[in-house]
Amino acid sequence: xxxxxxxxxxxxxxxxxxxxxxxxxxxxxxxxxxxxxxxxxxxxxxxxxxxxxxxxxxxxxxxxxxxxxxxxxxxxxxxxxxxxxxxxxxxxxxxxxxxxxxxxxxxxxxxxxxxxxxxxxxxxxxxxxxxxxxxx
Length: 136
Hints:
The protein is α+β, with helices and mostly antiparallel strands. Helices cover 26% and strands 25% of the residues. It has four helices and nine strands, in the order ββαβββαβαββαβ. Strands 7-8-5-2-6-9 form a six-stranded antiparallel β-sheet. α1 crosses α4 (113-120).
C-alpha cells in the first residue's frame, strides 16, 4: 500500500484508443528520464490501491493531431518519439486516460532501467520538435 493520492478520481471516462492512435512521448527520450518520471509518479499516485508506476504520454484522440500536441502541449520539449496505442497494448501496457485530454498515463511493470528500456523499445526514433519554444 502507498501513501499516494488515488489516481481514480482523475481518470476520464472515454472509449479506449483505437489501435492506430498515435502515442507521443516528449523528450528527453532516455532510460534515465523514464525511470525518474515513473519514480515520481509512483511517489504521488496510487492505482487500484498500489503505487502507480507510470509515465505520461499524449494521444492523437479526437481534436488532437500530432502537430497540435507538439505545438500546444509539448512546446517546451525539443525532442519526442512516437508509437501507436496498438503497439503498446499488444506489448501488455495499460493506457489510462488521466487528467485532461489528450493526456494518458502508461502503466509500467516497474520503475527500473530494464522496464524503461523495454518501454522505449516500442517507440520509433527520437525526432526534433519543430514547434519548440524557449519561452511562452
